[in-house]
Amino acid sequence: MAGYLDQYGAGEERRNRIIIRTILIVLAAGIVGTLGWYLTLNHHQEGVVKDFIAALKRGDTQGAYRIWGCTSAKPCPDYPYEKFMKDWGPGPEGPDTSVLGLTDSEACNSAVMLTVTVNSKRTEHLWLDRTNDMVSFAPFPICPMQIPYEIMAHRTVGKLRKIFF
C-alpha cells in the first residue's frame, strides 16, 4: 500500500535533472561555438594569402603582385615590381614550390599576421589589413600589445587551425 509521502520530492528531482542538463547543453554549445569562431577568425585573410601562394606556385608573379595590392601599371611606391621579383621571383632566395606554404596566422588588432615558409632558409611574416586586404611585410616580429591570454590561446588552440584548415 502506497503511503502518503512516497511520491514526495519526485517532481523536484526531475526538475533538477532538467536544469542540470540544460546548463550542460548551453555550456557545451558555448564552448563549441567559441572554438568554431576562433578557428575561423582569420579564414578570409588566410584565403587571400593562399591565393597569393597559389599564384607564386603557378609562376604568375603578375597575379601575385596584384594580390599584394599593386599592379605593373600602378606599382606600389615603396615596393616596385623589380623588388617584388627579387623577393618572390625565381632565384636562389625565391620561393621553393615544394616548401612554399602558409604555416601560421594570428589576429593582431585590425590586421592579421601570417607566417609563410618561402624556402628551407627563409620564413616571412606577412601583414594583412582587415579593412582592405592589402598584403605587406609585417612591421613587427610578433603581434604588439597582446595580453597573455591571447598568446596562450594562440599557442594552444591556434595550432588546431593547421589540422582543420
Task: Please tag this protein with its features.
165 residues, alpha+beta
Helix content: 40-55%
SSE arrangement, N to C: HHHHEEEEHH
What is the mean predicted local confidence, pLDDT?
A: 85
Radius of gyration: 25 Å
Strand content: 15-25%
Outline: rod-shaped
User: How many individual β-strands?
Assistant: 4
Helix count, DSSP H or I runs of 4 or more residues: 6
Protein structure class: alpha+beta
- Poorly predicted ranges (pLDDT <50, ≥5 residues)? none
Largest sheet: 4 strands, antiparallel
**Major sheet: arrangement of strands:** 1-2-3-4
What is the CA–CA distance across the termini? Answer: 65 Å
Structure description:
The protein is α+β, with helices and mostly antiparallel strands and 165 residues long. It has a domain at 40-50 and 95-164. 46% of the residues lie in helices and 17% in strands. The chain has helices spanning 10-39, 43-58, 61-68, 81-88, 148-156, 160-164, and strands spanning 101-108, 111-119, 122-129, 135-137. A four-stranded antiparallel sheet has the order 1-2-3-4, with helices on one face. Strand 1 (101-108) and strand 2 (111-119) form a beta hairpin. The longest helix has 30 residues, at 10-39. The mean pLDDT is 85.
Summarize the structure.
With 165 residues, the protein is α+β, with helices and mostly antiparallel strands.
